[in-house]
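Subgroup meeting minutes
Present: P.N., E.W., G.H.
Scribe: E.W.

1. P.N. recapped why we're keeping a running log of single-chain structure predictions: easier to compare across weeks, and new members can see raw inputs and outputs side by side.
2. G.H. added today's entry (172 aa).
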Amino acid sequence: MKLSKLFTMFLKINLLSTSGPASVGLLHSEVVSQRHLLSEDQFVQAVGLSSALPGSDALQLAMNVGYTLGGLGGSLIACVAAVLPPTVLMLLFSVALHRMQGQRWVTAFVAGITPVVAALIATTALHTANSVVGAPGLLLILLVSLWLFVCTDINPVLPLIAAGIIGVVFYR
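Output recorded in log:
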C-alpha cells in the first residue's frame, strides 16, 4: 500500500475517533470490513499483541497494522498520523476548555458522547470475541478473562501473560 494512502487512512481514523479504543473500532472497520486489507484473524492477532505490550494499545495497533501494510515506513507513517493530529487537537481543546471551564454545555457534551465511545469499544470486543467462539479452549480463556476483569481487581497484565503462555503451549 502506498505510504500516502496509509497516512491518509490513519489521519482520518485519528481525526474521527474520540479515544484510543474508539480508534481501534474505526481501524477494524477500515482495514478489515471495508478495504479487506487484513483478515479478521490478522487483525485479532495484532490487537492481542498490542494489548500485551506496555503503552498505548491503539498506537501500537496502528504501528503494527502500518508495518503489515507498508513495512517500516508504514509503521512510522501510522505512528505520525496517529500521534500528531490528536496531540495538536488536544492542545487546542485544552486551551479552549480551560477558557470555558465550568460551563454546563461542555459537561453535557462529554456526557452525550460517552455512550457512543462505549458502543465502539463493545463492537470491537464483539468482533474480537467472535474469532474465538469456534475454539473451545480459546472461548474458555475469553470467559475466564472476562470474569477476572469484571469480578476481581487483578492486574490485566497477569491474564495476558498467562493466556500468551497457554497459547504457546497448546496452540502452536
